[in-house]
Amino acid sequence: KVDYDVCSNYGNWLYSAGIGNDPRDNRKFNMIKQGLDYDGNGDYVRLWVPELQGIKGADIHSPWTLSSAALSQAGVTLGETYPWPVVTAPEWSRHISQRPGGSPHPRGRRGPAQAPAQHKDRGIDFYFSRKKDV
Fold first, then answer.
1. Which pTM does this prediction carry?
2. Cα–Cα distance, 134 to 124 (Å, whole number)
3. Assigned CATH topology for domain 29-98
4. What are the pLDDT digits (tens) for 86-96?
């Protein structure tokens, strides 16, 4: 059973988009942090995104950061069986390298297996700022 409340759902979508009612400046919804906080092992993602079922644990929240070998072992090919992220927000980095509970990932800080050229070093701030000459 999935609970649903129209007002709450609409408000959450607005908040996630960065246009909701929040008195704090520069507030952003961090999808990676939320995934780790509320779906630490990735079971919910695995249920609704079967393309990522081969990825173990919390790595499922950021598959683009895995090595080519890990992706191959999981049966994932970025750009073919699963898309590259549209944006990668800079504030995600502090959560990507951590497992649930705050312990560092056993392989240390991981970089992308292959960065999408058109989005390299352009976090979400780039897309929503007025200054585009960066």
1. 0.60
2. 13
3. DNA Cyclobutane Dipyrimidine Photolyase, subunit A; domain 3 (1.10.579)
4. 988 888 888 88
